[in-house]
Design goal:
The chain is an all-alpha fold. Helix content is 86%, strand content 0%. The protein is built from 3 helices and no strands. It starts with a helix and ends with a helix.
Length: 72
């Protein structure tokens, strides 16, 4: 269990790494483009979440119908 937790922590960048990544992104794209990229990334994640929630809901409904058919 301890190995699993330590292997997960290795893949997560720390505060200093995130700062340097943000600084490099700021230098490359400039201060006007970064909010646009953030907004686009947020919309993409929201759409993905909505799609997966819809798929899960459909899957749950089909499971419920199948279990009702088996009971009859």
């Amino acid at each position: 269990m301890e190995f699993l937790l330590s292997s997960l922590v290795v893949g997560i960048p720390g505060g200093a790494s995130l700062f340097f990544i943000a600084l490099i992104a700021l230098i490359i794209f400039g201060p006007k483009k970064l909010p646009e990229f953030g907004r686009a990334a947020g919309q993409t994640l929201r759409e993905f979440k909505n799609a997966t929630n819809g798929m899960m809901k459909e899957h749950d409904e089909s499971d419920k119908k199948d279990s009702e058919k088996k009971e009859q």
